């Protein structure tokens, strides 16, 4: 728990060998953390777990777009992160003939 590095240049990412051999924790039931955000004990886990839903939603939107252009729904395509606008447009693989202006 002690801060050993004060700059990002010297920061060393914790690895598996940094975990203590004897690592026992206890979760307190119905406790309040006075220094936590709004008294919460955990505010990072739900957003971290749910953040993957954004990537899944973008992929599903791309699948829907590809399906509208005639690709089968189950045809695999690769999208490397990050999901930038350019990556999404290229993954949709819209044919030039389908760009219509009304």
TrEMBL record:
InterPro entries: Ald_Oxase/xanthine_DH-like, AldOxase/xan_DH_Mopterin-bd_sf. Transmembrane segments: none annotated. It comes from the Eukaryota. GO terms for molecular function: iron ion binding; oxidoreductase activity. PANTHER family: XANTHINE DEHYDROGENASE. This is SFRICE_037361. It comes from Spodoptera frugiperda (Fall armyworm). The lineage of its organism: Eukaryota, Metazoa, Ecdysozoa, Arthropoda, Hexapoda.
